[in-house]
Write a structure and sequence with these properties.
This protein is mainly β and 102 residues long. Helices cover 11% and strands 41% of the residues. The protein has one helix and five strands. Strands 4-3-2-1-5 form a five-stranded antiparallel beta sheet. β1 and β2 form a beta hairpin. The relative contact order is 0.19.
């Protein structure tokens, strides 16, 4: 099942956060490049002091404990999010009026 989901994420080309349970660490904002047998090839960047490093790493499928992906981001505060004109009404975010119970 995990193999199928990782393959699906690979085809989508979206960024994912992957937890490697054997190393007890997260790989953030990685792209899954390839799956061959039980090896998963990841590409990601990391910030180290004054430089950004780009990595390509192969991990075993069995060492992956969790995979997350960011679905959306909405700014906080009193800012109206930008919505495309062709966005279907059913998929638009709605602001709920704040209830004042004084």
């Amino acid at each position: 099942m995990l193999h199928r989901k990782i393959y699906q994420l690979c085809c989508d080309g979206r960024e994912v956060w992957i937890f490697l349970r054997d190393q007890q660490r997260w790989i953030e904002r990685a792209k899954i490049l390839d799956i061959e047998g039980d090896l998963v090839t990841l590409r990601y960047e990391s910030e180290e002091e004054d430089e950004t490093c780009s990595w390509e790493e192969m991990v075993r499928l069995e060492s992956i404990g969790s995979v997350m992906q960011k679905l959306s981001t909405v700014p906080r505060g009193d800012i109206e999010p930008m919505v495309s004109d062709d966005c279907p009404e059913a998929e638009r975010l709605r602001r709920h009026p704040e209830s004042n119970s004084d």
